[in-house]
Design a protein that fits this description.
The protein has about 190 residues and is α/β, with parallel strands linked by helices. The protein is built from six helices and seven strands, in the order E-H-E-H-E-H-E-H-E-H-E-E-H. The chain has a seven-stranded mixed sheet, with helices on both faces. It is globular and about 50 Å long. The chain binds glycinamide ribonucleotide (GAR).
């Protein structure tokens, strides 16, 4: 039996798509059973629909964080989800939600954590004149972009890079890193 994974997105959903594509391999230990978005018109939802994956979309606007997260928790439980993967989910989760899923929520962040938590990582890396950048998959805790690191991928930063070039180089690594880190985590349990 493959482990049941629910993915939370807010936008493009390319990391979610990489998890879905990897999950189709017969030796992949997980399957993506649900895609949830806090942005009802997130482009990633179309990919989920085209792949026959159940979706749930609900805007968080006007709701208290803890109320919103409790609805999401219910939707995940109704689908018998065992692991939650954040894939470009641009919202902080309530400590209550994180506690309920402790050790079973993972996130991908476009930086070599613990450096460059938060948003606009590629621009900040360029501004700082770094020569290395990358992506991190980690267990989610109540602190933003914190929690035990599961895997990292490094890329070089070239003097000619702009944000788009650097983001594209990192994203190629994200799409390899996330499916592998997810599979490793599930296999360890
Ligand atoms: C990815 O680069 C992901 O690492 C980043 O947002 C992008 C989402 O792209 N996540 C964060 O910044 C979370 N702090 P995607 O929607 O195509 O997967």
């Amino acid at each position: 039996m493959k482990a049941r994974v629910g993915v939370l997105i807010s936008g493009r959903g390319s990391n979610m798509a990489s998890l879905v594509e990897a999950s189709h391999a017969s030796d992949c230990p997980y399957e993506i059973v649900l895609v949830i978005s806090n942005v009802p018109d997130a482009p990633g939802l179309a990919f989920a629909a085209a792949n026959g994956i159940p979706q749930f979309a609900l805007s968080h606007k006007g709701m208290k964080r803890v109320e919103y997260d409790s609805i999401i928790d219910g939707v995940l439980r109704d689908a018998n989800v065992e692991y939650v993967a954040l894939a470009g989910y641009m919202r902080l989760l309530s400590p209550e939600f994180v506690a309920k899923w402790a050790g079973r929520i993972v996130n991908i962040h476009p930086a070599l954590l613990p450096a460059y938590k938060g948003v606009d990582t590629h621009q900040r890396v360029l501004d700082a004149g770094e020569t290395k950048h990358g992506a991190t998959v980690h267990i989610v805790t109540a602190e933003l972009d914190d929690g035990p690191i599961l895997a990292q991928a490094e890329v070089p930063v070239f003097p000619s890079d702009d944000v788009d070039a650097l983001a594209a180089r990192v994203l190629i690594e994200e799409h390899k890193l996330y499916p592998k880190a997810m599979a490793d985590l599930v296999r360890r349990r």
